[in-house]
Structure formats: structure tokens, C-alpha cells
Amino acid sequence: VIKIIDGDTFKLENNQTIRLASVNAPELKNCYGTESSQALRNLILNKRVTLLEPYADNYGRIIALVISNGKIINEVMVRNGFAKDTSDKFPATKAMQVAREYAQSKNLGIYSEKCSQVVPPNLGCLIKGNHHQADNSKIYSYPGCTNYNRTIVGLFEGDQWFCSEYEAKKAGYVKSGDCRSDFGKF
Fold this sequence. Notes:
alpha+beta
């Protein structure tokens, strides 16, 4: 491994880009992005890795389980809260699910209150904006919306808090379908 791009992507000596299968690390600009990238750097930079179950994606990257020093790096990243398990979209492994549950139960990394929030840091800004990366949709909700209390603001995924509907709309978010009134009129 000659270069770490972020917490789930790196380059090999032959300049091939590799992405960890079944995980999604925060972008560098998002909560825990820098820490995630540094963790992957510490685990594999300038080391030999083995790729298991590799396949190519639409961007020319190789997606694989990555082994280094007898450890599945994908699992290590999830277990320590440096990446989210996405094995529901890819071939699921029990180990990845267990790793995710461990990180969540210990509030590690992306699952800490710093990066996964239910309560706003500013009590005057109650609107939750969720950015769904799979389809790039942006939805906001507020107290009074049916799913508001179950909604988590994942700052590691680019979610954010807003102080007004105007702010949310200006940032490209659309009101959730489970909100029956305007904010402040519930």
C-alpha cells in the first residue's frame, strides 16, 4: 500500500485503487473523517495486503475484503468506530454485524455523541437534516414529525442541524413526508 485516500480507500504500488468492501468511512470533511483516514494509514500504509473476494465497481476501483497481519481490516475499521458497516448492501458477514454492534454499544468513533446526535448541540436549532448518500436525497424533520425522535443526525455521513426550515431548504433539504405541519405550528 503506497497511499491512503481516506478511511476506506487506498492505492497499491501498481496505482490500483482499492476500496474496503461492506464499509463506508466518513469523508475527510465530515465528523471523524480525519481520524478514520489516520486509522487506515496506521493499519496498512507501506504494508503488504491480501485482497479477498475482489470485484470491480463502476469507478474502476477494486472492492475487497482486505487482510493485513492476519486481521480483516474492514472489520477492524468497523469495530473501532472508524467506518460504518454496509454489509446490508453487499454480502453480509456475521463478523461485520458483530463489529458494528460492538462499536455502537461502546459509542466508539462515528457512533459517539460527537458524530451521531439525537439532541442538538444548540437547543435553538432542532431541525434534523439527513443526507442519504445512496440516492443523494436530503430530508429534514423537526419535533412533531412522526419519526423525529428516532432520527439520528449522523455528522459523519454529512447530516446536519438547522435552526429554521428556511436554512434547511436553502441547503437543499426537503421536508420529510411524515411532517404534517410547518415547524413551529405543531
